[in-house]
TrEMBL record:
Gene3D superfamilies: Glycogen Phosphorylase B (3.40.50.2000). GO terms for biological process: carbohydrate derivative biosynthetic process. Keywords: Glycosyltransferase, Transferase. It comes from the Bacteria. The keyword Glycosyltransferase applies. InterPro entries: Glyco_trans_4-like_N, Glycosyltransferase_grp1. This is GDP-mannose-dependent alpha-(1-2)-phosphatidylinositol mannosyltransferase. The keyword Transmembrane helix does not apply. It holds the Pfam family Glyco_trans_1_4. One of its GO terms (molecular function) is hexosyltransferase activity. Residues 14-172 form the Glycosyltransferase subfamily 4-like N-terminal domain.
Length: 388
């Protein structure tokens, strides 16, 4: 099958949607399919062979974050050329309502279109206001996927229609097989995310840290991600700042090793999350997970059975839960084992098969329609027995 996938966000700025698309493409390629991904990217960015650049992106505030998007006449021309050259059996567009390549591709594409909705935003005034513009494009979509029930709910409430829920996928074996790093072990808490993006919740974790260090002074916080490190620790007492180790941007291999090494992985995100791929990665690596009680996180963690939850934005609740876990190896082992079992449903062997089934459904439907149209055309052109 020839599959074209449209990524709305800049390929060179890591994010959950980009990782999902990359892993999906690699899974489909391993299955023998032809795959091309169209994504915004700077001209000097090294790209995998299956990614085609649609040009540089620009930063735009979006869903409580800053997304790097690509939109305009030049982008539209590149989208049309990519569609023409690819001659795809199915187009898979991610975030078709964002002002980026997804919407442009939805306008330009012909044939079966599958759309995946990642955003969870129950009060999106922008989406409501833009509905008249989006409607003609959305009507061309053959099948809709939402990565969670909360993304599906956002879609239904703002745009109507419905979607099948297929979660983000993870290569569980990659994380489970990573080697722990000795220097990252021993009384460590892990955090991975953009340091200077408030909704990722690092400020909440920093407010909890003094109480954690007061009771367990040997604890270290390992932070992986880009951002202003000095600003991140500015609120800590000077004597505690050395207990925070900033690792900067880490490779996929080091991310897996970090998650395999820490005693507790903390996800203190404050909102705007529709799924929580980092939770799945942490569980795949066997890390005991402590997360804010966002609806999407609670769903991923099986309502607290596969990881512990604390009240969102409550630094004291976070500190108390972290201290209990750090002091209870048996509870950490229990969470690790439960998470490892629970996470199998998110492996690409399952998620990829579900997405491929959607592709096959829409392409089979398109083939049936095309056959019906050809049959009808032949009936109209075929001479009648009477010669009329």
């Amino acid at each position: 099958m020839r599959i074209g996938i449209v990524c709305p966000y800049s390929w060179d700025v890591p994010g959950g949607v980009q990782f999902h698309i990359r892993d999906l493409a690699e899974h489909l390629l391993r299955g023998g399919h032809e795959v091309s991904v169209l994504a915004p990217a700077d001209d000097d960015t090294p790209l995998p062979p299956f990614v085609v650049s649609a040009g540089r992106a620009v930063p735009v505030p979006y869903n409580g974050s800053v997304a790097r998007l690509n939109f305009g006449f030049l982008s539209a021309a590149r989208v049309r050329r990519w569609l023409h050259d690819g001659d795809f059996d199915v187009i898979h567009i991610h975030e078709p309502t964002s002002p980026s390549l997804g919407l442009l591709a939805c306008w330009a594409a012909q044939g079966p279109i599958v759309a995946t909705f990642h955003t969870s935003n129950p009060r999106s005034r922008a989406m409501i206001a833009a509905y008249p513009i989006l409607q003609p494009a959305l009507e061309k979509i053959s099948a809709r996927i939402a990565v969670s029930e909360y993304a599906r709910r956002t879609l239904v409430e703002h745009l109507g229609g419905d979607a099948v829920v297929i979660p983000n996928g993870v290569d569980v074996g990659f994380f489970a097989g990573a080697e722990p790093k000795p220097e990252w072990q021993g009384g460590t808490i892990g955090f991975i995310g953009r340091i200077d993006e408030p909704r990722k919740g690092l400020p909440v974790l920093m407010r909890a840290l003094p109480r954690i260090l007061a009771e367990r002074p040997g604890t270290r916080l390992l932070v992986a991600g880009r951002g202003d490190e000095q600003e991140a620790v500015a609120g800590l007492p000077p004597e505690m700042r050395g207990r925070v180790e900033f690792l900067g941007m880490v490779s996929d291999e080091d991310k897996a090793r970090l998650l395999r090494s820490v005693d507790v992985y903390v996800a203190p995100n404050t909102g705007g999350e529709s799924f929580g791929i980092i939770l799945v990665e942490a569980m795949s690596a066997g890390a005991p997970v402590l997360a804010s009680d966002l609806d999407a996180f609670a769903q991923v963690l099986d309502r607290g059975a596969a990881g512990e939850l604390f009240a969102n934005e409550d630094a004291d609740a976070l500190a108390g839960a972290a201290l209990r876990l750090l002091g209870d190896p048996e509870r950490r082992k229990e969470l690790s084992e439960r998470g490892s079992r629970h996470v199998r449903r998110f492996d690409w062997s399952t998620v990829g098969a579900d997405i491929l089934a959607v592709y096959e459904t829409v392409t089979d439907g398109a083939a049936s329609v095309a056959t019906d149209e050809r049959t009808g055309l032949w009936a109209r052109l075929k001479p009648s027995p009477s010669g009329d």
